[in-house]
Specification:
With about 80 residues, the protein is of the alpha+beta class. It has one helix at about 25-40, and strands spanning about 1-10, 10-15, 60-65, 70-75.
Length: about 80
């Protein structure tokens, strides 16, 4: 089992995923939309969330030292680029 961490509108919450850690980025984004819409993510329920709300978000995957699997869905950040 993996944990999906979703960051949206300044809020961040975890959702336990009982699926394969190797989901595609598109699958992660679709699952995130569904669980946020239905209230499956405590503290992050948006029933009117747009179908493509996470299209431009980054999907990061990490294995913890304890053997756990974490997937992070987060907005892109400008670090390392020149802002103009």
């Amino acid at each position: 089992m993996a944990v999906l961490n979703i960051t949206y509108n300044g809020m961040s919450a975890d959702y336990p995923l009982d699926v394969d850690f190797r989901l595609t980025d598109g699958d992660v984004r679709r699952i995130a939309v569904e669980v946020v819409r239905t209230g499956g993510v405590p503290g992050l329920q948006i029933a009117t969330l747009a179908e493509r709300a996470f299209d431009d978000f980054v999907v990061d995957r990490f294995r913890t030292p304890q053997g756990g699997e974490r997937i992070y869905l987060r907005p892109k950040v400008p670090f390392g680029s020149s802002a103009r």
